[in-house]
Amino acid sequence: MAVRVVIGGAIAQQPLGAGGNAWAFLQYVLGLRELGCEVLYVEHVDAGKCIDEEWRPAPFRQSANARYFASIAKRFDLETHASLIERGGDHLGLSHAEITQWAGAADLFINLSGRFHLWDVLRATRRRLYVDLDPGFTQIWQAQYGVDMNLAGHDAYATVGLNLGGEDCPLPTLGITWHTTVPPVVLSEWRTASAPGDAYTTVGDWRGYSPVEWDGSWYGQKAEEFLKVVSLPNRVSTPLELCLAIHRDEPDRLALVENGWRLSDPRERAADPDAYRQFVFGSRGEFSVAKHGYVHGRTGWVSDRTACYLAAGRPAVVQDTGLARHLDVGAGLLVFRDVDGAAAALRAVETDYATHAAAARRLAERVFASRRVLPRLLDIAGV
Q1: Taking a C-beta distance cutoff of 8 angstroms, is the pair 199, 284 a contact?
Q2: What is the pTM of this model?
Q3: Using CA atoms, how far apart are residues 47 and 220, in angstroms rounded to an integer?
Q4: pLDDT, averaged in runs of 10, over the chain (383 residues)
Q5: I need a labelling partner for 222 at 20 to 30 A (CA). Which of 45, 100, 256, 302 fits?
Q6: Among 184, 190, 382, 217, residue whose Cα is nearest residue 292
């Protein structure tokens, strides 16, 4: 009998320009389905947080959240195996009662970032695995600010912070044994024969949320780290493009433009999972910093976005969060600590691009492939 897995995520929470966010959850759904598991994808949304295409409040059924969720369920053949619950109200796909019944026969609930809170559903499953996708911030919010990160009640815990709990990682672990994992990527979804584009790119938010404090240190966002390398386009010959969620009145926007960064709009280039994938395919590689908190905290965070670039055979040059201690770097995946190191890494890739592109795909196959990552998570969960 196939292993039955319920996966809780947050695709509908970001319905505008967030195709990459959708992939962060879809890799688990499609990867487990490829392994032969029977998978149900579930999430919930508060009625007061439903919006239309202009970010204005909207009824659940007419919201961008519901439209986006329905389109993705149809696109990936999940219509009979997906549910979006309006808390205390309506639903798309399976009803609250139907998902609770389905969960009652499930072997495992994988709660990605703890985003699923309906505990009658969670308790119905035999085992529960919490997968932390925001290492450091998850733990600080709960330890320092008393925010309920929905950690209690799970049987096992995993994190994409490969260095969380390490000697040089000063962040709290909350007394939890965190099993480390890399984000999975479904290789069959990311194979391409198309030629790479001319620019190194990335997709992200300029300021996701406010900095947090732990033990006298502050842990901030991506904007801080990009400003440390803002002069980079003037030091390399290849274009650099940011597909960036940044407010039109953000003061830092001018500094990016004046220093030669290309800026593109996620609502156009990453509107849905297919658009996001085409953006990656059309890139020469990835160049990206990490959130300041990941870097300062030496979390060893690894991005699901980077896994996609690697799987597409696009080399990745990313800021070192402590990940170099845990992954092979230098071919296909290169890390840097400052603007000089970033420029040197990009020049190194360009010196032998074909070799680095092939190494990127091999690294994805060897380390990030869902067929390797997800069976280990099932083992961690005790399934």
Answers
A1: yes
A2: 0.97
A3: 30
A4: 96 96 98 98 95 95 97 97 94 96 98 97 98 98 97 98 96 98 98 97 92 96 96 98 92 95 96 98 98 97 98 98 96 98 98 98 98 98 97
A5: 45
A6: 217
